[in-house]
Amino acid sequence: MIGRDEQTDQLAALQEEVAQLRRAVASHALVDQAIGVVITAAGLRPEQGWEVLKQVSQHTNVKLRDVARWVVLWPSSGRFPDDIRRALSAAVARARDAEHAAASAPESDGQAMSCGPVS
């Protein structure tokens, strides 16, 4: 049989785990929203939006969820920290350049890959 102290410890551990899972779900939703903002504003594909956010986080040493928060708030507030704005512009430019290079590179059968228009 489990003692009262052990039950209390297990309950506390489970409550902390639930709190962590709730934060993770909220963070994931925020990142998904930020990807939507990036792909809409920059004309990128969803996987490119994810890469852009990761690059911004890595180049600014700002947590991904915090970068996502700034991106999601940007359309309504018009505010962006300068370092995040610069890193975001650079990451979008790299994504567009990569898309353009991939679209103009010949495939193995000698035909160019068709990826659609790039903004």
Automatic annotation (TrEMBL):
| Listed GO MF terms | RNA binding
* UniProt region (Disordered), positions on chain: 96-119
Q: Which residues form the ANTAR domain?
A: 11-72
Q: Which InterPro entries match?
A: ANTAR (IPR005561), ANTAR_transcrpt_antiterm_reg (IPR024189), CheY-like_superfamily (IPR011006), WH-like_DNA-bd_sf (IPR036388)
Q: Alphabetically list the UniProt keywords.
A: Coiled coil
Coiled-coil features, chain-numbered ranges: 4-31
Query: What protein name applies here?
Result: ANTAR domain-containing protein
Q: What is the lineage of its organism?
A: Bacteria, Bacillati, Actinomycetota, Actinomycetes, Kitasatosporales
Q: Please provide an example of a Pfam family that matches this protein in its UniProt record.
A: ANTAR
